[in-house]
């Protein structure tokens, strides 16, 4: 039963995160006068090997193809986050490890993007990616926080994660 809950919560959290990032970049792209440019650019890079942002064509096949990868990746991350939330609910002292792990994950993500998408980074400002990821993390975190109220209760009783024995 726990696995079904983790998969359900992970799917929902992943969809929240993917939707938040997609909406953020739709707003950014629309303000810049090029709606859907970011997913078209990333889809062009992944599926057609385009490395020059000026060669990006905004076509639905590129947008939908990249969106499928984007949502799938977020669902995987959501499932991992849901599993970690279930673990923190059972052992609140592991919250610190989860927070540190999240920081390493984010740093690793930025390194990976810098290595793989360097030619496209000029068209995709790093701070837009950071803001999109922060919005996604907040949305996913809020959802999982609401699904696991025991975490909040335990943290109110033991804010630093210590146990009754003082560990």
TrEMBL record:
The keyword Transmembrane applies. It comes from Candidatus Segetimicrobium genomatis. This is DUF1440 domain-containing protein. The chain crosses the membrane at residues 6-28, 63-86, 95-117, 123-145. Keywords: Membrane, Transmembrane, Transmembrane helix.
């Amino acid at each position: 039963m726990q696995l079904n809950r983790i998969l359900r919560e992970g799917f929902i959290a992943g969809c929240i995160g993917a939707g938040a990032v997609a909406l953020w970049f739709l707003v950014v792209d629309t303000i810049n006068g090029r709606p859907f440019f970011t997913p078209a650019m990333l889809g062009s890079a992944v599926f057609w090997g385009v490395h020059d942002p000026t060669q990006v064509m905004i076509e639905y096949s590129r947008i939908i193809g990249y969106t499928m990868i984007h949502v799938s990746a977020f669902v995987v991350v959501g499932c991992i986050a849901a599993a970690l939330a279930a673990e923190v609910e059972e052992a609140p002292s592991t919250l610190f490890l989860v927070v540190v792990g999240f920081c390493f994950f984010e740093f690793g993500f930025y390194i990976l993007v810098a290595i793989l998408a360097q030619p496209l980074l000029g068209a995709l400002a790093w701070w837009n990616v950071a803001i999109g990821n922060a919005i996604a993390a907040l949305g996913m975190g809020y959802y999982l926080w609401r699904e696991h109220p025991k975490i909040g209760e335990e943290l109110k009783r033991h804010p630093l994660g210590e146990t009754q024995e003082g560990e």
